[in-house]
Automatic annotation (TrEMBL):
Signal peptide: none
Keyword annotations: Amino-acid transport, ATP-binding, Cell membrane, Membrane, Nucleotide-binding, Transport
Domain ABC transporter intervals: 2-230
Classification lineage: Bacteria, Pseudomonadati, Pseudomonadota, Betaproteobacteria, Burkholderiales
Single GO MF descriptor: ATP binding
Gene3D superfamilies registered for this protein in UniProt: P-loop containing nucleotide triphosphate hydrolases
Protein name: Urea transport system ATP-binding protein
Similarity remark: Belongs to the ABC transporter superfamily.
PANTHER family given in the database record: HIGH-AFFINITY BRANCHED-CHAIN AMINO ACID TRANSPORT ATP-BINDING PROTEIN, HIGH-AFFINITY BRANCHED-CHAIN AMINO ACID TRANSPORT ATP-BINDING PROTEIN LIVF
Cross-referenced InterPro entries: AAA+_ATPase, ABC_transporter-like_ATP-bd, ABC_transptr_urea_ATP-bd_UrtE, BCAA_Transport_ATP-bd_LivF, P-loop_NTPase
Amino acid sequence: MLTVKNIHQYYGGSHILRDVSFTATLGKVTVLLGRNGVGKTTLLKSLMGLVPIKSGSIEFDGQPIQKQTPYERARAGMGFVPQGREIFARLTVEENLRMGLAYKSGSTPIPAELFELFPILKQFMNRRGGDLSGGQQQQLAIARALAPKPKLLILDEPTEGIQPSIIKDIGRVIRMLADRGDMAIVLCEQYYDFAQELADDYLVMERGEVIARGLGKDMEANGVRQLVAI
Ligand SMILES: Nc1ncnc2c1ncn2[C@@H]1O[C@H](COP(=O)(O)OP(=O)(O)O)[C@@H](O)[C@H]1O
Ligand SMILES: [Mg+2]
């Protein structure tokens, strides 16, 4: 679904991403691990077109997309859950979900399935986003990304600052979405146990480079826990 080849990216003079390549496959969770500041968010933003890449290619659903705008990429079926959630605090839950449908026709309904995945959102439909707990906001951010039915879902540290019970719920939803087989998932994480439980494939970044990769089931044996230990 997603093939990334030899990406290089710079912020000013600093070389942030160095020759990063990987793929994400339908029905699988590809986990991206790495300590703070190694370039995970920069990589995910590059995939979405939110930061420009200097060289390399990004193919999504069989098409080269590295020249497309973030809007075009979203429209093509790439969904993004940004680090820190970035929900609209002054808009209601319902309005936030509608933002996820902004590039669909005005009459596109919010898929009822989102409320099965995250029942709390139905209950809090008319509350302002800013009045939700961190975990509820994260669920809202995921639901907003899912609203237009993406073929690729990219999540940037969804467990950051969230209580354990909601982390479990989010993990269950991610597994279920992948197991349906019609979506590829790229999950960036620093929380090793959560990442390991969900990973079908993993990659580890350090200083902008991929330094290790393999199958999720081999993560422990391959010493990934030590590689990302803080
Ligand atoms: N907008 C920016 N301008 C300049 N440097 C940045 C910017 N955003 C991030 N960086 C730098 O790029 C590097 C990678 O950051 P980031 O991608 O956020 O890492 P991670 O998500 O792995 O913590 C860090 O050294 C960070 O300081
Ligand atoms: Mg980050």
